[in-house]
What we know:
The complex is a heterotrimer. In chain B, the strands form two sheets. Chain B has an eight-stranded mixed β-sheet with strand order 6-7-8-3-9-10-12-11, sandwiched between helices. In chain B, a hairpin with a 2-residue loop joins strand 4 and strand 5 (81-82). By secondary structure, chain B is an alpha/beta fold. Chain B has one domain (4-97, 177-325): 3-Layer(aba) Sandwich (Rossmann fold). Helices cover 31% and strands 25% of the residues of chain B. Chain C contains 13 helices and twelve strands. The chains are: A mainly alpha, B alpha/beta, C alpha/beta. Chains in contact: A-B, A-C, B-C.
Amino acid sequence: xxxxxxxxxxxxxxxxxxxxxxxxxxxxxxxxxxxxxxxxxxxxxxxxxxxxxxxxxxxxxxxxxxxxxxxxxxxxxxxxxxxxxxxxxxxxxxxxxxxxxxxxxxxxxxxxxxxxxxxxxxxxxxxxxxxxxxxxxxxxxxxxxxxxxxxxxxxxxxxxxxxxxxxxxxxxxxxxxxxxxxxxxxxxxxxxxxxxxxxxxxxxxxxxxxxxxxxxxxxxxxxxxxxxxxxxxxxxxxxxxxxxxxxxxxxxxxxxxxxxxxxxxxxxxxxxxxxxxxxxxxxxxxxxxxxxxxxxxxxxxxxxxxxxxxxxxxxxxxxxxxxxxxxxxxxxxxxxxxxxxxxxxxxxxxxxxxxxxxxxxxxxxxxxxxxxxxxxxxxxxxxxxxxxxxx
Amino acid sequence: xxxxxxxxxxxxxxxxxxxxxxxxxxxxxxxxxxxxxxxxxxxxxxxxxxxxxxxxxxxxxxxxxxxxxxxxxxxxxxxxxxxxxxxxxxxxxxxxxxxxxxxxxxxxxxxxxxxxxxxxxxxxxxxxxxxxxxxxxxxxxxxxxxxxxxxxxxxxxxxxxxxxxxxxxxxxxxxxxxxxxxxxxxxxxxxxxxxxxxxxxxxxxxxxxxxxxxxxxxxxxxxxxxxxxxxxxxxxxxxxxxxxxxxxxxxxxxxxxxxxxxxxxxxxxxxxxxxxxxxxxxxxxxxxxxxxxxxxxxxxxxxxxxxxxxxxxxxxxxxxxxxxxxx
Amino acid sequence: xxxxxxxxxxxxxxxxxxxxxxxxxxxxxxxxxxxxxxxxxxxxxxxxxxxxxxxxxxxxxxxxxxxxxxxxxxxxxxxxxxxxxxxxxxxxxxxxxxxxxxxxxxxxxxxxxxxxxxxxxxxxxxxxxxxxxxxxxxxxxxxxxxxxxxxxxxxxxxxxxxxxxxxxxxxxxxxxxxxxxxxxxxxxxxxxxxxxxxxxxxxxxxxxxxxxxxxxxxxxxxxxxxxxxxxxxxxxxxxxxxxxxxxxxxxxxxxxxxxxxxxxxxxxxxxxxxxxxxxxxxxxxxxxxxxxxxxxxxxxxxxxxxxxxxxxxxxxxxxxxxxxxxxxxxxxxxxxxx
Lengths: 391, 327, 338
């Protein structure tokens, strides 16, 4: 049916516009969010933190940084905050930029303020990257578990994938020969079953015959049991173990934290999907012929993402805490790079003599984590669809 | 019906049973026979009304026809093509030809997609190239259902129920179908809006040559809108006739009780309760014989014995009732 | 019987407003009606017209922030209910005025037996317990037409069908012999055959127990079936009122006429259905003057600016349209739409 004059409806058929003036979703969201003062406070602190970290990155890196976090001044060790630099005992190049030590010095005479600035960036990146990884994995796993959940895996699929995974695992851990063997076995098996299925379709053999056709369990079960297994691991100790085994680097830490915290997002997404799947608009999309992947990511995911966003903001806080904990235990980013955790760690021996080494990074972590939590809760309330529905 | 080329849809022997699982091991202890051997036919450009109360299986039939659910047995012929067992890949081009409008205007649109985007999904599938062409076609569709194209970037919650239903219709039309299944499209709407949507559906049918399967529990609307009507009860078609005949001379006791139960605006005064319906003693379904036996005042021995088949009692008028068939 | 002689309950110029983030929604905007003893009155209107809020405000069930009573009186047996405190309301709820809600599924508590739920109001208001209470519950179940009432007492709501649950709701409402039952769309969620039975039940109960019923619905067919007098609501005001016979045979407000003309019936088959153009206004953005004027085929200039008064057609029939009233007076003929 191509538009022609005959087909065009009479102008008198046009009905009223919607009754309220246009407001974008962002405006509506902001109006709701604005009401929660604590959440606004959280947002402001978050913005400040972000700015500080970014500034810190620039101000403390390079050959001649504005604030030098690594400059050792043994004659100035354990100076209290706001102490003036002793110009007589220092080389001109070693004098702190502002002439005073804003947050004091540590046991090596390093400027704590500069170290805090440097550490802010670490905390920020660890938080965001780790959570980014966990959300990415969680969305995938949760979406597939929620959408395809009821599809049953047959024994032949499981056997083939099991053999493949075993093969790859062997190859990675240097038992190359058995690895390749398993892999070839898997491929052979795959070809055999594909062929057998083709023949079976021609012969109209009933499904359910033979061991290989047994329905073992559903994809949903598989993914959720993996989630359960991962949850059973005490994650901090798992991270500790992995970090201790791998070479110490900020990237390893981020990745490991990310790989051990995707379970919450998975459960949220799966729960939302289970209810979304029954909604008419999903059936409408299927009836139009939209493909499964597009339905999952374009149609359903935007509806399921709200709890994930909330848990992500709180997850950033938790990742920052984890990194601080790792640094405190000595398993974090290697020295001399400063992180808030290792400032506390270095200062623990001097907690009575130089309490600022503990309190300043401690309070900073507290404030940042609190702000993220408040922001996350404000986000959750603002995104709550029940409050947005007009009818 | 032998002139098959006039029928856009022919369904025969459709069955869908849902398992009832109990116990720790999820054993199947019984079946809910949602659809138990249903035959339907829709002629091109015509409207078949499918009437029944809640739980009779009419919505399940819509999903079976659209292949959103797997049939347990039976045959579905759409535009003379047997689509019962075909794969999803083969079904994709067929999907463009049949679409659905849902009952709930609040759940049938994606709350996170603008209405323009929702409709454009269909345009994308219909192969309309992106950019200007698609925008024009989108505007055309919105105008066709009586909405201003300026509203394409608004979200569903900004619209009223009737407007959302129009958007749902526009989405269904975006792929240019020949058959539209209307699953109680006006039940959730206000009375003054119902008339608007009914008129819209009628206009579209005339302009575009659409065929409709109109599912509803409201006999008034069905009587107004449909050419032929099938009355469904607990998974079975109990009566089928052209609309005029069904309302002029209803034969099945269930149809009679439905008709007498409709509160009618025209005669004012008290309605006498019909002796046809009696309160069922149990909620469980009868395992043999006619499904209506629990509530039927005319029930007799043959009703309990075996399933009565649909029999022609008059020209194009079929009834599944032992008593009526032997009159 | 005639209205206005010793009404049981008299709502006078009731105004209930809801404060939103950006605007005030005037859900009930100057509504007046009466229910006389032993009378079945229907309040008809579409969704958003304010009928449910009206009913809830009679029993003080409107959430006070964000809602507020902005004016008016509700006189029940000589007292103004709007002056009542929460404890005063608790004495009349379930006792003198009872309510039946729309969704029998969610209105019954799933973890209590039928006996507990029906008996609760009796226990609280009449202080009856034990065996006499049980017998009274059985009697009530029989009155509402539930077979094997004695066994049913120990059932839980999920063991009953929708129609039976609604009957239980009605039994709960009847428990203390109220003077007035407010029924808010009690049959909307039910199948049409069950609805017919419930309507029949209402009719017989009202006669037997000589009580009044305020029946709220959007379904004109239901109104035609049971109402003695009708109030038609649109956009938070009453636009027409009168005896059921008058409303259906010679409606005098364009909205009522439009509603009746837009009902699909078999007799209209083949003809185009009349439909009222436009949509119901948002309670926060009502048009000035007559709330119906943007959709009205008879609107004149003054309709856009002046809020119309109720015009009296005699015998209790009033309609809020001076335009049609004038035409009727001039031509003596009834104007109706096709």
